[in-house]
Amino acid sequence: MRLTLFVPCYADTLAPSAAIATVTVLERLGHEVVYPEDQTCCGQVHANSGYLREALPLAARFLEIFAAAELVVAPSASCVGTVRHLYPRLFRRVGNRELAERAEELGGRVLELSEALTGPLGVEDVGAYFPHRVTYHPTCHSLRALRVGAGPLRLLEAVQGLELVPLPRAEECCGFGGTFAVKNAETSAVMLADKVAAIEGTGAERCIAVDGSCLLQIGGGLARSGSGVEALHLAEVLAGEHGA
Amino acid sequence: MTPIRPFPESAREELAKPQLRANLARATGTIRAKRRVVVEEMPDWEELREAGRAIKARTLASLDEHLLVLERAVESAGGKVWWARDAAEANEAVAQIARSHGVGEIVKVKSLTTDELGLNDYLAGQGIEAVETDLAELILQLDGDWSSHILVPALHRNRHEIGELFRRTIEPEVGDEPAALAEAARIYLRKKFLAAGMGVSGANFLVAETGTAVVVESEGNGRMCTTLPPVLVTVAGIEKVLPRWQDLEVFLQLLPRSSTGERMNPYTSLWSGTRAGEGPQEFHLVLVDNGRTRVLADDVGRGALACIRCSACLNVCPVYERTGGHAYGSIYPGPIGAILTPQLLGIENAPTLPYASSLCGACYEVCPVKIDIPDILVHLRGRAVEAGLEPVSERVAMRGLARTFASRRSYESAQRLGRAALRLPPWARVGPLRSWSRARDLRLQPRTFRGWWRSR
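Predict the joint structure of the above. Result:
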């Protein structure tokens, strides 16, 4: 299948390994991956911070760039949620029905990686090998906006060599929340400290999630605490191979 | 209207109290677990939530008509209805009723709305003593403290603090055991119930077609307040109205399970007007606007008026659990407070509250009337930005960023610049990057994704 890659701006700029791993996994499964280089940012940070006027042109731009795609795949639940849920709402709020409908139509074809794999691509065992003990943090947007359910866990369970340990209070936010981490940095840091302690308490070597933004937060906290646990995107686990 | 203190500032203060945080985590954790059990056992919970949402939405859409039906029903049952545009009018109505009966002592129950109005202080200024009869409200009143949780107002206090307070105020001999503390309060309050010339209550619901006020409670003090004194005044927001008696079927299931985690609350009192020779011989209903019609005029923000004050959203909120209720600067704390307070007071008086959330969505998931709190938070952020209430530096940055993202060329050159800035040592970082780096590291990977893509 021909898959169009949507790489969030922060992932492209700061932490490309998740997107690179996404390409690896999808190509290994025999799909063709295209990456429209005109893409920049979906506008989530603007939309969620109240900058509607700034977010709308970015949303319209996104609809243009991805209009022709059969299926769009992104290694980020929150950016997919922005396209699928926020875009139609934003356009409707400013009375633009045409773009709202286009956003709704495209939204159904924009999938987070685990949704794409376990949904239209119909695969749970992607042939990965990852000999580590891991725990999984369900990010808020994957859990409550996209409702990806057990998809990521099923993908992880099918990985050879991997041991999955449960994370206590897994469904609690890591404290990232976009500008929240900056505007309410102290509260965010306390939430992060509790998340880091929960992760470290599991004895896992890696904490896995499907949102690079939360992983920047969690990974930043883990690195600061010095425990040696790494934060990794699901794609990076699924890209793991024997001898890699 | 006095602006509330910025949330990040008050939060910083509250976060520095380790005992408070331990109390909060324990208390919210306990209620969360109880709620989960009694919600998960309901096969039709989602249908009930949807029914609750729909009834509230439909009622709010023609609120004026339902209120007039309510007024007629209350008056034909022998009650009197007062309309109060704001806190001043509501408080004066209550004081006027008290004065007309020469009442010097009032007992109170379900005081959230009257706390919003500042009724007790107003009455005190008129020489009228109002005694709170909910145990937690009494504790706060005796100590001159204020509520930090809608359902458990003294959540931030432990029993040793309460024991010390009681010995100082109502019973010098009492110990710290919960049963002894409750008994001391009971003895103290019993005298107040019998002496009071007037009871003042809030209401969980007002049924329009029958003119009925409903109070749901756990301690029995509500029943005392609404039956013992000869005069009863109920003060309630106009959004509390339900059109039909039958609607209670939905809400009396949703409320106790969502708030205390009980299948049914111990006491549900319902009364319509007065009855000769039984209970209060005079009933007054004060219907309060105090900013609510302004909330109603906002087609997104009005969702907040559906709230039935269960506090489920507080108990699941990861922000509330860390900061506690006082950080929200209002008697409506937590996620519901973050969308209600800025609307009731005006966004210019509470612009930081809509940002006091990571938008994790846990509140929406548990709300028994399906208020889309994250959506309303984002909407109110938009209103704050429109009103120019956000820092100029942020506005400039957001606009600059939007321009950068408008084309591939500007985006790619900004990527190069941005990555260079991130290579600065932590001490040289400024702005958002500096606050980020206080608690977290940032590890930059050697190249961008598009750099990698092109090089393959």
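The beta strands of chain A are 2-5, 32-34, 72-74, 110-112, 133-136, 163-165, 206-209, 230-233.
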